[in-house]
Amino acid sequence: PTLSTPADLSINLALNPTLAWEASANATSYRVQVSTTNDFSTTLLDEVLTANNKALSGLSNSTQYFWKVQA
Questions:
Q1: Are strands 53-55 and 45-49 parallel, antiparallel or unpaired?
Q2: pLDDT by residue (tens digit) across 24-49?
């Protein structure tokens, strides 16, 4: 899926953003992962969803986060 929001390399985001991505044809679920490491060796979130968005909460100031979605 194509990631929609927040935009790549975004800074100064709210600590409770909503991640969104474009729906993939024929996809019935999406695996969304959030990490503080770009290799996702540890994850803060690892969920399978049927929607094409995920509201986050509890993020920390001055912290870089990475996210990805797989259909």
A1: unpaired
A2: 999 999 999 999 999 999 999 999 99
Tell me if 35 sits within 8 A of 63, measured CB to CB: no
Residue 59 is predicted with a pLDDT of 96
Give me the amino acid identity at 43. Answer: T
What separation in angstroms does the CA of 46 have from each of 11, 12, 24, 34? 22, 23, 19, 7
Stretch (H or E) spanning 41: none
Enumerate residues 6+ apart whose C-beta is below 8 A from 34. 19, 43, 44, 45, 56, 65, 66, 67
Give the pTM: 0.93
